[in-house]
Design a protein that fits this description.
It is a single chain. The two termini are about 60 Å apart. The longest helix is centred in the last third of the chain and has 26 residues, at about 95-120. The protein folds into 2 domains: about 1-95, Tumour Suppressor Smad4; about 100-125. The chain has one helix at about 95-120, and strands at about 1-5, 10-15, 20-25, 30, 45, 55, 65, 70, 75, 80-85, 85-95. With about 150 residues, the protein is of the alpha+beta class. It is elongated, with a radius of gyration of 30 Å. A 6-stranded antiparallel sheet has the order 2-1-11-10-7-8, with no helix packed on it. Strands 4-3-5-6-9 form a 5-stranded mixed sheet, with no helix packed on it.
């Protein structure tokens, strides 16, 4: 899932990108940036039919900057940083399949390590002896049962 990481001087937030994500100072924007230099309706990020994301400045007064150059439109790539006033937007496109696969591998490796450790120690040490499973008769007066010790 693609997302924008919004970093201001004292905060960092992450937003998942939809088909169209609006950015600006006004509260009706999906990503609201409380920075006086950011316009009320500053920019949009639009998912393209090919799956890429297009950053579009909406004619903001103070502009949007990519690599210190003002941009009107820019196709976003992994790690791209766009600056709006004192706020930095970082584009991150992470394949959910890749992250799920990494989690599966980690879990499988941990399970394999536990399985190998149990085999190395020997299963006999974990099983009770057959004698210890047979209780001696219970005493009705004291209501206690005595289990044999090995």
């Amino acid at each position: 899932m693609a997302k924008l990481i919004v970093q201001a001087s004292n905060a960092r937030r992450e937003y998942e990108l939809g088909a169209m994500t609006t950015i600006g100072r006004h509260p009706h924007n999906i990503i609201q940036i409380l920075d006086r230099i950011v316009s009320k309706e500053h920019a949009q990020v639009i998912r393209q039919p090919d799956g890429h994301f297009l950053y579009r400045d909406l004619g903001s007064l103070n502009g949007s900057f990519f690599k210190n150059e003002r941009v009107g439109e820019h196709i976003l790539a992994e790690g791209d940083e766009i600056v709006l006033g004192g706020t930095q937007l970082i584009f991150q496109e992470q394949s959910s399949q890749a992250s799920q696969a990494a989690q599966r591998v980690s879990i499988q490796q941990a399970a394999l390590a536990v399985h190998q450790k149990v085999q190395a120690v020997g299963a006999a040490e974990f099983l009770p002896s057959a004698r210890s499973l047979i209780p001696k008769p219970c005493d009705a007066t004291t209501r206690s049962c005595v289990w044999p010790t090995s």
